[in-house]
Protein 1
Amino acid sequence: MKYNAYVLLTVFSVFFSTSVFSAAKDSGQPLVISMSDDSYPFQYVDENGVADGLLVDFWRQWARLNQQDVVFRPVNWQQSLDNVEQSLADIHIGMAKTPARLKLFDFAEPISKVNGYLYINKALTSINTLEKLIPYKIGVVKGAAHIDALLEKQPKLTFAYYANRQQLLDAVINNDVFVFAGLEGYLRESNISQKVIMSFPVNRRIAISEFAFYPAVKKGKASLLRTVMQGFSLVTPVERNNIERDWLGIQRSQNEVVVAMQTGVEPYADIGPNGLPHGLLVDIWKLWSDKTGLPIRFIAGDMQQGIVNVQRGIADVQLGYPESESMKSGLNRAHLIYQVSSRLFSYKTSFKTVEELKGKVFAVAPTSPYLTELIEALPDSDFYYVANVQQMIEAAESGRVDGFIAAAAWTQHYLLLKDRWEDFYQFKPIHFKTDLYVLNRNNDLDFSDRISKGFTAINSSELAAIERKWILNPADRIYSSTKKLVQLNSKQRAMIKSMGEIKVGFVNNWAPMEYKSDNGDYAGINSEVFKIISQELGLKLNYVEFSNWQTLLDALLRGDIDMSGSIVPTAQRQEKLVFSNSYWPAPWGLVSSLDSVSIFSLTELKGLRLAVVEGYHIVTDLMQEYPTLELVLVPNSHAGLNAVDEGLADVFIDKVMNLSAGLKEGQFSELKMSMLVDFSEQRSHIGINKRQQLLLPFINTVIDNIDRAQQQKIHQKWVSQTIEFGREDFENRLRLSIIVFSALAVLVIVALLANRRLRREVALRIAAENKMALFAKHDSLTKLPNRSMIEERLEQAILTHSREMSQFAVIFVDLDGFKAINDEYGHHVGDDYLIAISQALNNAVRRADTVGRLGGDEFIVILHKVDSISAANDVAELLLQRLSSPFVIDQLSLSVSASMGIALYPADGDSVDTLLKTADRHMYRAKNAGGKSSRNSQQQ
């Protein structure tokens, strides 16, 4: 009887609670859900004050499926528990079970599970067990489930309690705690996370346990839980997986990227003798990790398994897959990572011509991306389809086939391992390239962009070094053998080919930048740059000659030509043109008569007649900024020099290299040149008519990969002397004058006076040349060494320290927040501030060291003969202290911080480029960690 009454009571209570719930739904009463406002990524409030997180998305899906309104009540963690206990909310969004909570709440089934970890500061190198953590206080959020779980494992542990996650992370950053507890995903999607992850590497964390999130109600309201769980049963596994992947998969600041890799395809990818992944593609991914700062983890398997792992969300990306029209994975092509060469191999018989291949049988894999091309190339041959290279080799050795087509590097590696290399020959005319793509899920397109940007940061020399390590045959190397700066996939090559002939305009009398040679060819610096672009992209260029600059510019704006070099971006031109990245320095100079006062700035030209080439962008600027100038427009550089020489203009301005070339001809011995400081840091760009703007990213990639050696080669070919005054010609004339005057005894006194005057003029010219040399090698604002001199000093330091077998350090300094000073107070205050910064840096180092300015707010410090990286760190700390002090500029107290990267010779590189790039990379690590710090290769 009691049993029957109990059953009846239970049925009645379920019916009643369901009825109440239904009534609430029908009456429009929302379900009030208590949650934490700061437990990212599970339950928190975003920057707009809206509830968000994994559990919030679960409940929103629940609400949609059950047609029930819900209201989220976010508060701090402890208050979220109290609100349910005090009936201020109907249910808690999700919490872990603890003995204390079991006394207060009834729990539903878990709706999600996640791992909890202890994050340990990298300074605690020997800590790898809970017992070793006993002396340290563990940072936790008050009321967190980690506390009971940890005390159960090690009762002697002690804790530092914080009200919420933000306070805990602030304590971590301030080094108040060296160990803290957090759930998986705890550091994602936060500006602070980058600061924390640098000091708390993911590979140092200790697992606590798996935690489940249970919806919970106050004791005595279990009937509501049953109804809630009935609603959650409507959420499908696919919907659950999508929500969890969105929050625990790839995020902008995620801690780890999981890479699915295929094995057994060495030298591209395999598991090495030490049990770790290795190979060319693995090394490229490791370099990607260095560039992006994101740790990576490899999951090994076969190629098809790797695709499935990405599709299911087990892995984030596929290492490198031969995606093509015949091999479609259904995934997104994030980046072209490599191109594999496939060739024809024959056994003990060397084919000499394609004719010999007629009637022969060749083995090939039926899934080969190049199968259609192969059949078209060998229409009179037969094909035998096999699964892999091993079967191909066996078929060739047994005589079943006359040869086979396979990936060359893979085949060579296999033959070498089997000691059968000498029995096989390659037929070079049969050669196919297969594109390997990094693949990711189609709904992760933002992550796809981040993947591609990481690979773009890798330069060709770095890739060539990896390639030399793994690819035996130089003919199979796409970087070292062809020295390609740009790798294009098949679609990109087809797109560029479809554009047809591209018209490039040039001025025929603008040496050394561009001109028409005696042979009638396009010549000069710009011609070399366009030649590289043409070779790299396979562009067919048609060079169109113009006699003056204005005519060329008009043609470019109209679209009569497609592009031209040395075009300066202006707002007016950007309506019709797009502009490449800069590719060549283009400082401006000023020519005046020999007996005039030297001029270095436009402000000194007031009231003078100024000659300038018609069409130059500077014409508009001069008319607006200096209305008192009388402009004399000339068609070209030679006409401008003539105008000054004949007295038609007082001064003529043009690019320094063009002026130097004109003065060297000897025709203008009464003219002199000085640097125009106002435009000393201008650089050349390629202007492209918007009809052809699809070419812009490819041209930029080529320009960005033209290395210093190529630039130096172009410079030596076309600019034998950048700053030249014709001193030798002038001194020859002087000697001749002295001889003539000496022969005329009657005019001895006159000759002596003339000789003294001429010598004084020579001295003036030499002084002017020295002044020009100073401008060429020093920053015009701070007077520090500029990029050119910095590179010279680095080259000298490498030579000196290599002979002495000693070390030196390079510190890359980038100011944090300098733009705000310029924006708020103006560029004049910003300039004065940069001068003060340069003086502070100079005063902080030894006289033998070098402080230089790269440009903008970037500086380089070269420290000679340092004992260790710690010594360089000490100097960096001193520099940070000096720069953090306020500087008084125009009665304003200004201060910014700095981010610094340190490279040590020879440990971090033995060339100028490598040292600068390494220091630059570490500087960005410091900046991404929040600035006000330095980083080096020994810091994780």
Note: Residues 137 and 484 are 55 Å apart (CA to CA).
Protein 2
Amino acid sequence: MEPSVEQSPHHAYPGHWEADVVLRDGGTARIRPITTDDAERLVSFYEQVSDESKYYRFFAPYPRLSAKDVHRFTHHDYVDRVGLAVTVGGEFIATVRYDRIDATGRPASAPADEAEVAFLVQDAHQGRGVASTLLEHIAAVARERGIRRFAAEVLPANNKMIKVFRDAGYTQQRSFEDGSVHLTLDLEPTAESLAVQRAREQRAEARSVQRLLAPGSVAVIGAGRNPGGVGRTVLRNLLGAGFTGRTYAVNSALDADQDTIDGVPAHRSLGEIGEPVDLAVVAVPAERVPEAVADCGEHGVQGLVVLSAGYAEWGAEGRERQRELVRQARSYGMRIIGPNAFGIINNSEAVRLNASLAPERPASGRIGLFTQSGAIGIALLSGLYWRGAGLSTFISAGNRADISGNDFLQYWYEDPDTDVALLYLESLGNPRKFTRLARRTAAVKPVVVVKGARHSGSTPPGHAVPVSRIPDATVSALMRQAGVIRVDTVTEMVDAGLLLADQPLPAGGRVAILGNSESLGLLTYDACLAEGLRPRPPRDLTTAATPQDFRDALAEALADEGCDAVIVTAIPWVGEDGEAEQGDGEVLATALHAAAAAGPAKPVAVVHVEIGGLAEALAAATSTVAQQRPAPAQPSGPAPGRTPATPATTAPPATTPPPGDADAAPEAAESAGARAVGRIPAYPAAERAVRALSEAVKYAQWRRQAAVPGKVPEFLDDTIDEPGAAARIDAALGKDPDPRGRPLSPDEARELLACYGIAVRPTLPAPDAEAAVAAAGRLGYPVALKTTAPHLRHRADLGGVRLDLATESAVRRAYGELTELLGKPAELRPVVQAMAPRGVDTVVRATIDPAAGAVLSFGLAGAPSELLGDTAHRLVPATDRDAAELIRSIRAAPVLFGWRGSAPVDTAALEELLLRVSLLVDDHPEVVAVALEPVVVATQGLTVLGASVRLSPPPARTDLGPRRLSNY
């Protein structure tokens, strides 16, 4: 809302303070500055506040606001006096105000850095987290205006307000003066305040998703009078799934005498229903959606699933229609899945919701599935169905104008019914937030992602997201740093999801292979080697093996402490009469289930060729509750879906029945503490089973490492001059910086890097041979003569570098050769530099990507990184563990560690350099690019021979500041 012309002219209306937020109960509200046009809203709001709340606000009975009060509370300069309001449906439900004060408590202006703050929340909306959300936003506003502390006077009986201040996480002081509690809050964010903010964000956004997935009642708006059509299909699917709540059909064109559709009460509008409706599925043409949304908002609907098409996927007009849809829904406190969505499914027996176009509700299971594509959603549902997999929840978000994969990560993080999260994503609306949420979720349950539209260079229709400048391989590396299992196809996603949902995490990469086909065993062995696993020689049970032989062999492999996982290979076997045994699949599946239940908790996968009924029988889970099997032996970490609250314990080896003693099996299994084992995943090809197991091994390793996070060594702090770096950056950018930024000169870059303990070996210009000789004399022999022309820079292969020049004559001769071979000095821009100790040439870079954030990169200089793309990446800030992994994760890493008998280089110095660059970029967001090339790493120490730095005004950060929903 823009202010009227009467608004105080001290400062322009701060539109960037406007924000949509999710409250504690999952509903939405809008926060915005109060303007002079809000007088009537303020009076109406105040009239709905109880006398007790008014007393707490003004410390005295205050039944109504005077004209002077209204003027004071609606006229602000947005600098020293600021008021914010929380609105739902355009009406105020809460307000907050600060007034800048001096040391005596009197009104003041800058440079006074303290303000008095006061809140008022309508009684009907207390307990929804309104005040705590307002505090985050008013604190951010105050910091922007140079205010560092809030002072508040609170009556001792006002426990709710005291709790809001106490729980915010800010550094604070409390005292009791003149019958009231005096609170002072330091507004500088702390680790505790950030943790509080993110915990509240998680609870609120998870609750907003829960309201959509577990409604008490559903109305299908647009259910047709005749069979067929989108609305009627959703209604039929709701009924077919056995939805446990109330179901209604809404169609404005119903005949006067028609009061049911498919046996469901039918109405012309939501208002006619006469009972609360929690969720509305909107299946009407796009031009009629605004009317339906208004009807929902006015009758208290909590959330919408919009199946209607005709939005951003249709171009500019559709994008504006989509923005207006989100704006309208949020104004009523509702969240949206869609538009252009396929629908949602919740398989919980307490809900049994199928508000989608999927004809059948998939089996109940432990997998949560999110997709941005309806077509991919159909394919995934079909694939999971035929593999016998079960889902906890399914969401197809379409254009994801509001609710996105981030919201569902918030929900699945604590969802007891979900052990694995699968996401098909075509875009990342808030990449930094996704990485943060994925890292936290992956610490307790696997997150498997397929990223579509990786190489198209364009955003999928309907998706408004920042455009990334980094290659897809970098995105993949950053996802893996966050613990995300990144796969290339939806088939691989299903393969990995099946293994992770029902099998424990492996303790390592040692794989036992057994089966009745030597050839299939060898294929599996080769696939394991290709995926970096450590397979044991396959055990051939021969084609004469019986299900009991499989059971005995599997039990033996699981009991072997040198084995972390087992892959069983099976082909049909022939009976004594020469014909294939009937019922092979069911019998073999029973034997494998029994062996897995009796043995230690290790993952088991089956590769089979045309054994009828085997996959279906293996998929028949004995339970769909969260796994209770022991955690695998250290160092593997807890099983999927279980919070690592206590250290993992080693499961004792289970006893097995004597070979061939089938009758003793049940008793032996029971005495060994047999467990209820879920589905054993079956694969039609060895490569697919091994690839899924490989992902589980890598994820388990990440979990083990994430349990003890890395840190930035404290000794670095003594060698870093952060204020000095900030002063140099401010001076370089100037008072009115160019938004495009500017590169630093070599001397400026050297001085800035020196503030972080990064020494760059100096160079001296050599415009002619005499200048080159003089420079060599100043620097000391031996020296290097190099060209710095852009087309020759870092290209020793083109002859633009001469090394180990130990005399004046050598310098003159080298100078003549360069100019004769490559061109005039003015074109070559030669420089002289003192020689560095011999070592391995590497390159260290840091860049700010608008989509991914700050990225630290490392590789070997020259062909390995430039031609082969052998570069590793980590998100900033990097920890000591990140730095160590960074230099070890490139394919050419052996060159640094003594390859072919060479001396290992000083990797500790290299790790320290990476940490220093990470700190520089993290501390100073104006540093948008750093390149150190080459960095020569010797056996002791390293030398930075070249450096470039680019500065720019700080990019906008969507992952910091107070909680807010993405802009529409």
Note: The radius of gyration is 33 Å.
Protein 3
Amino acid sequence: MRQRTLATLLLLTTTLVAPAALAQVAPAPSTPAGPAQTSTTSPGQAASAEQQAEATQDAVPGGADDQAEISAPGVDASTAGDIVVVGRNIPNAVRATAQVVSVLSSADIARTGEGDIAGALTRVTGLSVVGNGYVFVRGLGDRYSSALLNGSPLPSPEPLRRTVPLDIFPTTVVGSALVQKTYSVNYPGEFGGGVINLTTKAIPDENFFTVGASGGIDTETTGRLGYTYFGSKTDWLGYDGGERNVPDFIRQAPTGTGVIPGAQVLQLSNARTTLLQRNSDIPANYSGSLDLGVTGDLGGTRVGLIGSVGVSNNWRTRDAVQQDTVSNDGTIRNDFQTVITDNRAVVNGLLGFGAEFGENKIRWTNVYIHDTLKQGRASAATVYNNSSGNPLFQQNTSWFERKLIETQLVGEFKPLQDLSIDVRGAYANSQRNSPYERQFIYLCNTSLNTDLGNAPVSDTGVSCPGVWQATNAFDRFATVVFSELNENLYSGQADVAYKFQGERPMTLSAGYYYSENERTSTRLPFTYQTVAGGAIPFPCNLFRPDYLLSPDVVNGCPVPGAGNPSDTAVQMRFDAGQNGSYAYDASLRVHAGYAQAEAEAFDGVRAIVGVRYETATQRVTPVNATGTRLKNDYFLPGATLTWNFAQDMQLRLAASKTIARPQFRELAPQAFRDFESDRLFFGNPRLKDSELYNLEARYEWFFARDQRITLAGFYKRIDNPIEQVGFFPTPDARLQTGFTNLPHAKLYGAEIEAQKYIPLDFISAGMAGKRAVVIANYTWTHSALTADRSCVPGVLEGTMLGGCQANFAPAASLFRDGAPLTGQSDHLVNLQLGYEDKDNGTQATLLFNYASERVTNRGPSLLGGAGFQPDIIEKPGIRLDFVARQTVDFLSNKVEIKAEMRNLTGTRYQEFQIFEGGNRVDINNYRLGRLFTLGASVTF
């Protein structure tokens, strides 16, 4: 078993494997409903039944088993019949939607082998995942996209985001995922990159009970060195057992004296949340699931129940180089070697009830997701700010607990053949609880050689030519932060559509939408100090963290001849400092209505045109800081033309206007540390809405059975885009990230995708029923910011720059003109090579993914005020995965065995700056492990 060597250290469209056509958008009714066709057939041009059947097969390579169920506003699942337009048969996908969409069915998701929906979506053309499960569509961040569950919005449990991270949705609870890249007015107006609609499973096809389990290893984590702490006995499930309960005197400190006396300090958790421990044998990963489906008939009504429960526990250790600089030439200021061990525990549940009668459907869906990250961190450096040359050690222990609960009721009705009515209402609650974010700092004192046996952590690889000593040289020897977030989201929507029959049928639809978000967030930072304000005296300052907070030290270190021990007693002081407001309330209320028409305008040309009116009031009210109130209304038009100029070809043109509102955390002047990037973020109350103008052209060619090529070009102009700004509030401060608007930005690019299913019976008769799968896509994107002398919101409170009013600054002083948007990769490539044998239940897929370099944080202005540091760049690189599945019969039960091999290329995580002259600063650089997982499920 190999361990890390830490010289100074004491101590995380699929190409849309979707079948080629989007006929999956809605399953065909169990009994033909016989909907009217979209247009008439010209005499002598009617497609034959054989042609229609073949076109339908072309649209559904995998057959009926691959069809995906979609529940979304304005999507009529009953209209999946074939279409004949001027004598040419068009695949079902065209009938299902007039927009540019991609769909992942449950079979498609299974082919990727991903455990969460965010991972599966990385295979879709133009999609990438940045950070913890936030999906970027064509280079636009999550603020420009929205995530829906069965057509209803979701709140985010993350303070930094308004959208939910999709990596908290296990694939076991998702029946399909729809990605729509062109705007249609039945969706919310916050639509820049696209909308992602997840549909949960409703009524099963048959009764089933499935038990599954898996185990896996990470070559950089499992059986190797990491750092952990005890916490509570139930941490393995992600639930605190009471050890981290926060007493009322902590919550009341900001409104009182702000001082927590020693007697109360001793009431807080100590050793179980402070003592970082060296673990040289990190456990393997594991997961388990139970899935149940029951269906039957009650009279003329088909009813069903689906339940799912899952548990997973995963470990990840990152042995990282973390550097920073404040200079213009890349001279290193801090150079830390850091080991971070994350233990992520997820518990999820789904309980759904469904009823179908005729062409009507009712579903009641309840989702529960509990996602906790327990983190231990150890860092050491000899190069650090104001370094004495002696080694410095820093340890952190953290607990980030996220929870999402949603209940929603959806009714999809067809009271008349040509009339459809959808009604949906939902309530969701998200929470994030992060108590006891602890940090202790020790400095190696080379003038002492006393060994009390109480070093903060024992590690044979540490070289301290003296003793480790808790010190106030950095203003504090220890800190602790308590943070909580709670958000409620209420939403409701009604949609009505009526098809007018005639020579050229027309469908008119209209709808109303309402949502209200209410958020409360608090962040309470405290520092430990002595009553007299000095350092803990010798020899108590040599103790490890839990001894530093023991009664013998908290009540006053007994030092002979040093006076009254009560002067050295330890207390906690509430310290907002540069952390901004310690609490804020936020709300967003939206009312919207839309009208839309869809018809064949000319022979072979279908049009869908609509407009949405949306009005919203957004408020952020921080304590003791500037608040925000935004009240705006918009008319948001959208139009798409589809020209079916040949039996197997079509061209789409789309244009629309959409918006993007600032997120709560971008507006709230409160510090927040992101546990993934280890960065501090700070909101800006002066932000305003962004407006987007979108154009797209798309060519689609279904040139043969199971084959497709599509080519698309897109262009977006963004007025007042919101971008991140890196800055140093003081010369000694660490890098912080703020937010501001810019005058303009533009983004344009192109996509190409192709797929082919190749029957293998040409090899031999024994290969009949087997096929090869080739699916590939490529997206090229370019973006540029406009940074002129226009005044935009500044990131430093009270500053006046470039002749702008207070708290504003010229855009050119914050950004480089022409810089790319944050998170946008120029090149995205996906390739899948697979083998499938349905008769024998075999599936094997090799998945290749490449994303080019992208900006993760804007390079900060130099301390002198003139010029910038280079942007911080992430290099995702190449990733190669392999997934194999085999179904066998065992004792009359179906057993599915799945093997996964991830990151076979061993790609590193690299985030860096490159300066003129070639100096490189590694912001975050660590090896990503290769993951090997083996699992099995049994269906009864």
Note: Residues 1-65, 79-96 have pLDDT under 50 and may be disordered.
